[in-house]
Amino acid sequence: MSADLTTLIGAILLLADLAIRITALIIVPRERKPTAAMAWLLAIFLIPFVGIILFLLIGNSTLPKARREKQRVIDRMIAERTRELPPLPEAAAWPDWFSALVRQNQTLGALPALGGNSATLIGDYQASIDAMTAAIDTARRFVHVEFYIVSFDATTSGFFASLERAVQRGVRVRLLADFVASRRVADHDATFAELDRIGVTWSYMLPVHPLKGQYQRPDLRNHRKLVVVDGLVGFMGSQNLIDRSYNSPKNLKRGLQWQELMARTTGPVVTAINTVFLSDWYIETDEMLENEENLRAGAVPADASPDALVCQVVPSGPGYDGENNLRLFLTLVTSAQRKVIITSPYFVPDEAMMYAITSACQRGLDVQLFVSEIGDQGSVWHAQRSYYGDLLRAGVEIWLYPAPYILHSKHLSIDEDVAVIGSSNMDIRSFALNAEGSLLVRGASFVAQMRAVEQGYRDAGRQLTLAEWDKEPASATFLDGVARLTSALQ
After folding, report:
1. Of 206, 224, 321, 473, which has the fewest Cβ atoms less than 10 A away?
2. 131 pairs with which residues across the strands?
3. Are 53 and 69 in a shared domain?
4. Are residues 225 and 334 in the same domain?
5. Which residues contact 433 (CB under 8 A, 6 or more apart)?
6. Do 90 and 197 have their domain in common?
C-alpha cells in the first residue's frame, strides 16, 4: 500500500470519527435524560465506531408507532368506559397527596382506583403456583395468563394440567408470553407444543421477526406477570411461570433459588388486571376481546367489610409517554411521613429516585432496602452495589437476603396503609424499557401482611453496615462504578 493511499485512508477515518462525534453531540441528547445522554456520549467518544453501532441498535427506547397508537386507542376506550364509575365514598377520607397520586396514575395509565377489594400475599413459590392452579380449576368462562417467562416443567406441570382441564370444560384459555425471555429457557419447544396440545390460544409478546416486519429495539420486553380467572380472581406479582431455579445450568450449578411474592386479589380491581391483559392481547393479535371477557367493574362482587381495600392497577412501559412506575414510586417516597420500605432484586435507581430516598432519610423517616446478598446478573449486581455507600451514609438500612436465594420480590410500602406490589424492579430498565404492571393498594390490613413478609426477610438475612461496606476492596468498587456508568445506556 502506497504512502499516499495510507494517508488518504487515515484522513477518511479521522473525518468519519469527527463526523460521528459531532453528529452524536447533536442527536444523542435529544429527548433523553442527561445521565443517559452522557453515558451514550462517553461510549461513542471512547469507542466511536462500536459506540455508534450500539446506539443505532439499542439507542431508541420507544416502541414502533403502530404499537404506541394501539396503546392510545386502548387508553381512550378505558377513559370512555370509566366515566360512568361513581366517585369512591372512601375518597373523602384520603389525604390530599393520595388523591393526587390516584389522579396521576389514571392520567398516565388510564385505569382508575377501585374500592371493595381483598388481597392476600403469597410468598411461598410452590404455594403461589398451587393457588393459581386452584383458581383456574374454578373457571367457567375464561382464563387469561400473561408471563414474562413461561416454561412447562415439573414445578409448573400442575398449572398446565389445570389449563387442560379448563379447555376440556369449554373454558376459553388465552396465554401471552414474552418472545425473547420465554424462548431463552430450556425446553422452550416442548412448552409451546404442550400449549398447542392442550388447546390453549397463545401469542408471543414483542416478537422479534425483522423479515416479517415485527421489530423494535430487541431488549424492549414485556415483563408483566398476571393471571385472571373469569374476571373474579386475579394474581399479580414478581413470579414467572417456571421452576424456582429457572432451569438454567449456571443457576443449578450455583444452587440458586428465586424468592417471590404474589398477590391474589378479588373484587372490582380484577377487571383492571384483566384490562391489562386485554390491552396486550389486542396489541399482539389485533383481536379486541369483548363480551364476557371484558367485564365492567360494577359487574364484580365487592367486599363490603371494614378491611376492604382500594386498589389501582398502574401499567407502565415504552408504550406510554411517561415513566408511569417511576412517577408512582417517586410520589410514594416523597409523600411518606414515617416509613419507606423497598424490596427490589435489581436496584439501580435514577438520580431523581436516589434524591427521593436519601431526602426521606434526611426528613427523619425510617428507610429500609431489601436486596439479595448475591446476584444472578453480574453487571446489574455491580451497578446496584455502587449505590450502597451513598445509601448507607444517608441513613438507609440495607438488608441482605442470604444465598443461595435471589430475592426477586418487588414491592414498596410506606407508613402503615399504602403499598405497591408488581413486576417492576426499581431500576432504569423497568422504568424505561420494560412493560410492567404495578398494583397500588391502600389498606392497613394489606400493609400488615407486607410487614410480616418484610420481617421474614430480616429474620432470614442480615443487615449491611457502613463499617463493613467501607472494607470493600478497591477492585470491587471499581467494577461497581463501571457497571453504574453502563447501566445508564438506555
Report:
1. 473
2. none
3. no
4. no
5. 61, 217, 219, 220, 221, 317, 318, 490
6. yes
Query: How many Å apart are CA 246 and CA 148, to the nearest integer?
Result: 12
Query: Do 259 and 368 reside in the same domain of the chain?
Result: no
The answer on 256 and 137 residing in a single domain is: yes
Q: Is residue 315 part of a domain?
A: no
| pLDDT tens-digit readout, 231-285 | 999 999 999 999 999 999 999 999 999 999 999 999 999 999 999 999 999 999 9
d(CA 328, CA 354): 14
CA-to-CA separations, 82 to 78, 189, 439, in angstroms, rounded: 6, 41, 18
Which letter does DSSP use for residue 154 in this model?
T
Q: For the chain, what is the domain count?
A: 3
Q: Which of 280, 308, 336 lies at the terminal end of a domain, its last residue?
A: 308
E strands of 208-338, at which residues?
221-222, 225-229, 233-237, 257-259, 262-266, 309-316
Q: What is the pTM of this model?
A: 0.91
Residues 197, 240, single domain; the answer is yes
Return the residue matching grid coordinates 420486553. Answer: 221
CB within 8 Å of 465: residues ≥ 6 apart = 392
SS3 breakdown of the chain: % helix, strand, coil, rounded to 5? 50, 20, 30
